[in-house]
Amino acid sequence: MNSYLTHFILYTFAMIGFIGLALFVYKKSVCSSPTSKDKSFLSVENSLKLSATKTVYVIKAGNEKFLIAGDAANTTMLAKLDKNSQSQTIDYINTERNLSEIQSVKKQVQRINRG
């Protein structure tokens, strides 16, 4: 009876140790994946919900920003934002250029809303 209890306890501790080792190896392999090392490479800077299913996002990928529209069916890249349009302030020197960019983005958003 004593040997049965001793074997049971040893077997239980061995299995707990094996499961713990497997979890440790799993976490190390998941945390060392290339995508988890650089989490700041791709991020959502801002989003605007247009309707229940349609949203416009400003996505930052490295040093570049993109305007992306997404809905339940598909995702569309609307524009690549340049360095001048990335700032939060209005650059009055390039007002005409910024207005034309805004108009083109509005047209693309309206096209998405229709489709």
Strand order of the largest sheet: 1-2-3-4
Hey, roughly how much beta strand do the residues contain? Answer: 25-35%
Number of helices: 3
Radius of gyration: 26 Å
Helix content: 40-55%
How far the N terminus sits from the C terminus, by CA atoms, comes to 76 Å
Compute the average pLDDT.
Answer: 76
Succession of helices and strands = HHEEEEH
Largest sheet: 4 strands, antiparallel
Secondary structure class reads: alpha+beta
Query: How many domains in all?
Result: 2
Task: Give the structure's gist in a few sentences.
Helices cover 47% and strands 25% of the residues. The protein is an alpha+beta fold.
Show the helix and strand layout:
Elements: H1 2-31, H2 34-37, E1 42-49, E2 55-61, E3 64-70, E4 75-81, H3 95-114
Antiparallel strand pairs: 1-2, 2-3, 3-4
Task: Give the tags.
alpha+beta; 2 domains; four-stranded antiparallel β-sheet; elongated
Give your account of this protein's structure.
There is one protein chain. The chain has 115 residues and is of the alpha+beta class. It folds into two domains: 2-36; 39-114, no CATH class. 47% of the residues lie in helices and 25% in strands. The protein contains three helices and four strands, in the order H-H-E-E-E-E-H. The chain has a four-stranded antiparallel beta sheet with strand order 1-2-3-4, covered by helices on one side. Strand 3 (64-70) and strand 4 form a beta hairpin. The relative contact order is 0.09.
